[in-house]
Design goal:
- The structure is a single chain.
- The chain is mostly helical and 83 residues long.
- It contains five helices and two strands; from the N terminus they run αααβαβα.
- The chain has a two-stranded parallel ribbon with strand order 1-2.
- Helix 4 links the parallel strand 1 and strand 2.
- The chain starts with 10 loop residues before the first helix and ends with a helix.
Length: 83
């Protein structure tokens, strides 16, 4: 038996959403400079980097210009999509 699967386009409707308001909690502030200094010269590994939390963390850490950031993901496509 063949069944049709119906899906709606959800992802485009989520763009521009204020997640802090949606989650009813304040946004996290950027780490203080002393914390950034402590982790700047340490290699960082993010397992599950293609997932929602791992990719958000990777994007934030890349902005700090860390010298060594390693991304680990079991699904190659998810890691490729992270770019």
């Amino acid at each position: 038996m063949v069944r049709s699967v119906y899906t709606s386009v959800v992802i485009p409707s989520l763009k521009g959403r204020d997640w802090c308001d949606f989650l009813a909690r304040p946004a996290f502030e950027s780490p203080p400079p002393d914390v950034l200094d402590a982790i700047f010269n340490v290699p960082i590994l993010i397992p599950g980097a293609g997932g929602s939390i791992g990719s958000a963390l990777a994007v934030r850490l890349v902005r700090f210009g860390l010298p060594a950031l390693f991304l680990l993901e079991s699904a190659e496509h998810n890691l490729y999509e992270l770019k």
